[in-house]
Specification:
The chain is α/β, with parallel strands linked by helices and about 300 residues long. It is about 40% helix and about 15% strand. It has an 8-stranded mixed β-sheet with strand order 3-4-5-2-6-7-1-8, with helices on both faces. A two-stranded antiparallel sheet has the order 9-10.
């Protein structure tokens, strides 16, 4: 791709212009992301929102324009991280490799300016030894183990590098969910649902709702964190069970086959009649009563 020095300089200073140069006209949220200076970013995006595409463009822009930049792409599996890496390489080739590569393999791109982009599967064994990371990308972050997340954060300590975690929700579990829900102000959050993506039609969404059912439809296309159906107790139930109460009086006298649970009833007073928790409260009471009557509580 032939360009003047002024064009090269403009792209080096403007990541939005850089994205357009490789054929991507960023959505509004993508433009905001490209211009963000925050160090910790969460992308809670629906399927096909363009999260991996825009992150790949940002990673390449960094590598080309900031010498000695170290960029690490991690995901739960090598296949997943290599898919994001392939997008980086694709845009690099679209630009006709403006900065020559010293090394180019299926998992690594090392440039003559000292920058490198490395793709790895997300295991502690594979990531040990990497340090001074300028940009850390956690793809499919909702599936990344907490142990791995804790292991990679120190890589950013000396470099004061950036961490971008991108994913579609996968239940109320793991660091991605906790970081999204806990309100920690150090994270900049982006939530992009399918109805905000101009490339996804209403007709397609209707077809997906019919095919997937509301639970998975909301998860995949509307960024909703649902409980894992495989769990016996929901997260809410566990939190209720371990909550401190002034007194929890479990009267085990049986009347017509039903255990009285005045203490458990009292413990529910702070729900303020919220309909959203009604079914979970009922299930909690049933499980609690069953465990008490069996002598295991």
């Amino acid at each position: 791709m032939k360009s003047s020095i002024s064009d090269d300089l403009a792209r080096a200073l403007d990541p939005i212009l850089f994205a357009r140069t490789v054929g991507i006209n960023p959505d509004e949220w993508q433009q905001k992301l490209l211009l963000s200076t925050e160090k910790r970013i969460l992308l809670n995006c629906c399927r096909q929102a363009g999260k991996s595409t825009i992150v790949a463009i940002y990673a390449l822009w960094q590598a080309l324009n900031k010498p000695d930049c170290s960029i690490l792409i991690l995901s739960p599996s090598l296949r997943q991280s290599s898919e994001l890496f392939k997008k980086v390489v694709h845009f690099y080739e679209v630009l006709k490799k403006p900065v020559p590569a010293d090394t180019e393999t299926a998992l690594t791109l090392e440039l003559s300016n000292g920058s490198r982009i490395v793709s790895l599967p997300g295991t502690e064994k594979t990531i040990r030894g990497y340090s001074g990371v300028s940009l850390l990308l956690l793809d499919e972050a909702a599936l990344v183990d907490d142990e791995l997340y804790r292991a990679v954060r120190p890589m950013l300590a000396v470099s004061n590098g950036r961490l971008i975690a991108l994913s579609t929700p996968r239940g109320k579990r793991g660091f991605f969910y906790e970081a999204w829900e806990n309100g920690d102000p150090t994270w900049e959050r982006y939530r992009v649902t399918a109805d905000e993506c101009p490339r996804i039609s209403k007709a397609f969404l209707k077809e997906e709702l019919d095919a997937l059912g509301s639970r998975y439809y909301e998860q995949e296309y509307f960024c909703t964190f649902h409980e894992n159906e495989a769990y016996l107790f929901s997260r809410w139930m566990i939190e209720r069970a371990v909550k401190d109460y002034d007194e929890l009086d479990l009267d085990l006298d049986v009347d017509d086959g039903n255990a009285e649970r005045s203490g458990a009833d009292d413990a529910r007073e702070d729900t303020d009649g919220a309909n959203s928790n009604f079914e979970e409260e009922e299930m909690f009471d049933k499980n609690l009563s069953s465990y008490v009557n069996k002598g295991v509580w």
